[in-house]
Amino acid sequence: PRPVLVDTDPGLDDALAILLVLAHPGFALRGVTTLAGNIGLERTSANAGALLALAGRHDVPLHAGAAAPSVRAGIDEAAIHGADGLGGVALPAPVPARTGSAARFLAETLRTEAAGTIDLLCLGPLTNLARLLEEAPDAARRIGRVVAMGGTIREPGNVGPMSEFNLAYDPEAADAVLRAGLDLTLVPLDATRRVRASRDTVRDLLALSSPLARKAGEIVEAYFRDAATRESRPLHDPCVPLQLLRPDLFPAETLHLRVDRSDGPEAGRLHVDPTGAPANVALGADGEAALALFVQSLR
Ligand code: BDR
Ligand code: CA
Questions:
Q1: Half-sphere exposure of 248 toward its Cβ, with a 13 Å CA cutoff?
Q2: Which residues form a coiled coil (predicted)?
Q3: What pLDDT is recorded for position 9?
Q4: Hey, which of 191, 202, 239, 281 would disulfide with 285, CB 3.0 to 4.6 Å?
Q5: Whose Cα sits closest to atom 10 in ligand 1?
Q6: Ligand 1 centroid to 241 CA: how many Å?
Q7: Considering the chain, what is the average pLDDT of its residues?
Q8: Which of 12, 13, 164 to mutate to test the pocket of ligand 1 (most atoms within 8 A of CB)?
């Protein structure tokens, strides 16, 4: 199994990604760090802790990280993820977050194993990773692959005309991460909007015997609650572990990118720019195969 760290702001689709990582034998989860994003830090930490408890993984270290973006004010996403960030789905009492800074935990964990062996899955704004780069650049260089859900290249944005939530929430952090020279794969809306759960997905998950799969079914169901007329919902964050498992399902190109750090609707937009920093960018996805792998992974 591939040792991984998960940085997250659960969040319905974050929760689905975490359940996938917990369920799939291809991942060895070394720790979870949380941050404010979809909802405040206390909720995202409690939600991540509850998912670990559901899986009986009280051994996995959980650390609360950034409570706000690096410099800006946050964006409220409660309309999508519900007042508790998980659409009211019932979960067990959470594994408590440990004390000590998330960036320090990431640095210490990265130093315990050979450089390049631990991959980092970023499912929210990039604030915690930017802080790690600033506080412990030597440890950050030990990360294997960074796979981050964020941004859009050609698809319309979800918070601005061409801006996506995770990057728009903290453009300064996204800029620092892009320019850090990491082995970075971005999974933008161009890919994640092609991997969609339907009501059949809910039925398939609820029919499985694994408690993690059934909880995933309830979470996908909750994701439809405020979008009752939609036929399907995008599985943004699960695309991150899916990309690590099967990069061939996410055709990618190296693009040189710059993050828009203006104020207003363009904040966080990715500009393709020859003077920008290179990243491997998933520009699409085999949606059907990725969805099948998602369900299969939770089995
Ligand atoms: C991203 O923003 C959040 O709402 C989701 O959890 C995902 O990480 C999609 O733009
Ligand atoms: Ca997220």
A1: 2
A2: none
A3: 97
A4: 191
A5: 165
A6: 14
A7: 96
A8: 13
Q: Which of 253, 221, 238 is nearest to 287 (CA)?
A: 238
Which residue shows structure tokens 């040189």? 256
Round to whole Å and give the CA distance between 87 and 107.
33
Q: 89, 26 in Cβ contact below 8 A?
A: no
Q: Does the pTM exceed 0.95?
A: yes
Give the span between the Cα atoms of 297 and 22, in whole angstroms.
10
Residue 237 DSSP SS3: coil
The SS3 assignment for 160 reads strand
| CA distance linking residue 160 with residue 162, whole number of Å | 5
Following DSSP, what letter does each residue of 20-79 receive, concatenated?
HHHH-TTEEEEEEEE-SSSS-HHHHHHHHHHHHHHTT-TTS-EEE--SS-SSS-----HH
Alpha carbon of 181 to ligand 1 centroid (Å): 24
CA-to-CA separations, 121 to 2, 62, 198, 242, 263, in angstroms, rounded: 12, 14, 25, 11, 27
Distance 58 CA to ligand 1 centre (A): 26
CA distances to 157, 226, 239 from 218, rounded to whole Å, are 27, 14, 19
Choose the weakest-confidence range: 83-87, 154-158, 213-217.
83-87
- Position 180 scores a pLDDT of 98
CB 148 within 8 A of CB 187: yes
